[in-house]
Every structure is written in C-alpha cells, then in structure tokens.
Design brief:
InterPro entries: Lea14-like_2 (IPR055301), LEA_2 (IPR004864)
Helix content: 25-40%
Protein name: Late embryogenesis abundant protein LEA-2 subgroup domain-containing protein
CATH topology of the largest domain: Immunoglobulin-like
Keywords: Membrane, Transmembrane, Transmembrane helix
Number of helices: 5
Pfam families: LEA_2
Shape: rod-shaped
C-alpha cells in the first residue's frame, strides 16, 4: 500500500490538451467594432435631423417674411402708394392793364383787358406729377374772348406749385356777344359775368408700378366791373374736378 501511494505521488501530472483548452475557453466578440458602427450610424442620423430642422426653420422664416412683405405692400398700396387726384385752385385774377381803342360802327366799344390769373396746383402723392402744356379759355355768353397758355412742368411729391397765366380779353367781343350796348352802364359801371375753363393733363408714376393719367380741370365764373374809368374783378367762384 505504501508502494502504491508512492507510485501515485511519483506519477507526473498530465497537461491539458489543446482540445480541452479550446472547449473550455470563453468566446470572444468584437465589441469595439460594433460600438464604433453604432456610434457612426447615430452620428449620421443626428446630422440628418439637424439639417432637416435647419431647413424647416429656413423655409418657415422665408414664408413668414414673404407673408409679412405681402401684407405691408397691400397696406401701402391702399394708403401711401394710392394715387390721389391733384387739386387745382384759382387764387386770384387781376386786371393788369387796360388798352382802349377805337370802335367800329358795329361795336362802339373796343377795349382790351390783360388779366393775370394765379393758379395753385397741389400734388398729394408720394411721386411727382408731370403735366403737359395747359390752356385757359375765357368765355362770355358762350363766345371765346381770350385764351392763355401755360408751359409744361412737374410738381414734386407732396408739393404745391404756383403758375401765373396772362391773357388778353377782348371786351368788344363780349359786347358783341351780349347783342346790345348799355351806354348808361358803360358810363356809370356795368357788371360782366365771365367764365373760364382750365385743363391740365398729366401723369403720376409711383415706382414704375402704380401709374395713372390724370386730367385736372377747373371751371370759374367771375364778375368784372366794367365802365369807362373802372375795370375790376369783384367775385370769383371756381369748382375743380379730376379724372
């Protein structure tokens, strides 16, 4: 029995075989590689979502700005950019000179009056008003007794310009149009009722978008005190219109 124990103690320990080592060793997985791929995929997705959010924000901002601009333009088109009618006013009409002359058998009175009319043209628009040559006609009993011309010009935005118009009125034509001569009226004074018509055509152009042709007219009736020694305007009534 002692010999058997001695043999067992002397018997060397056998090493583990390679098969046993392979079977008993744990499996090894590429954990780092999987984590890197997962991280790369998550990064690309986050970049895509970030770009998408930026694109949505940009589109929303552009749409908001476009809507606001449209509202502002709509408001301006009905307020500031709306083209309004210029106004024409006759401030006064003065007789600057009297030129008496010899009459004829038909018209014993031959007197030429030189009138000076002061007109105001007001432009209430944001753009200038450019007008063409204008005419002012004076009538008595439906017959033309004088015509005045004014040169073309321009009225600035929210400005008023003054125009002086001079013309000669042939009073002998007025007497002829009346069909009779009141000698007593000529001596002591007689009132002659004249009418005038002024036409000014022009155009307003706002930023090249809002354009409009405007025709401004004014009709006036005024009374001239007419006698051998007196020629004076007494009353002026005017009404203006624009189309």
């Amino acid at each position: 029995m002692d010999q058997n124990q001695t043999n067992k103690e002397e018997q060397p320990t056998k090493p583990l075989t390679s098969t046993q080592n392979h079977t008993s060793s744990p499996s090894i997985y590429p954990i780092n590689t999987i984590d890197e791929e997962h991280g790369t995929t998550s990064g690309e997705r986050s970049q895509y979502l970030r770009r998408r959010r930026c694109m949505i924000c940009c589109c929303g901002c552009c749409a908001t700005v476009a809507i606001l601009l449209g509202i502002v333009i709509l408001i301006l088109s009905f307020t500031v950019f709306k083209i309004k009618d210029p106004s024409l006013t006759v401030n006064y009409i003065n007789i600057t000179s009297v030129d008496p002359g010899l009459g004829t058998n038909n018209n014993l009175v031959s007197v030429n009056l030189t009138l000076n009319a002061n007109l105001s043209l007001k432009n209430p628009n944001i753009a200038s008003f450019k007008f063409k040559n204008s005419t002012t006609e004076f009538f008595y009993e439906g017959q033309t007794v004088g015509v005045a011309y004014a040169l073309s010009g321009e009225v600035g935005a929210y400005k008023t310009t003054h125009m002086n118009v001079s013309l000669d009125v042939l009073t002998d034509r007025a007497v002829a149009a009346a069909g009779h001569i009141n000698l007593t009226g000529i001596v002591v004074g007689e009132d002659l009722n004249f009418t005038s018509y002024t036409d000014i055509a022009g155009r307003v152009n706002v930023l090249g978008v809002y354009k409009r042709n405007i025709d401004v007219t004014v009709n006036c009736t005024y009374t001239v005190e007419y006698s051998v020694t007196t020629f004076d305007t007494k009353k002026i009534t005017c009404s203006a219109d624009a189309t």
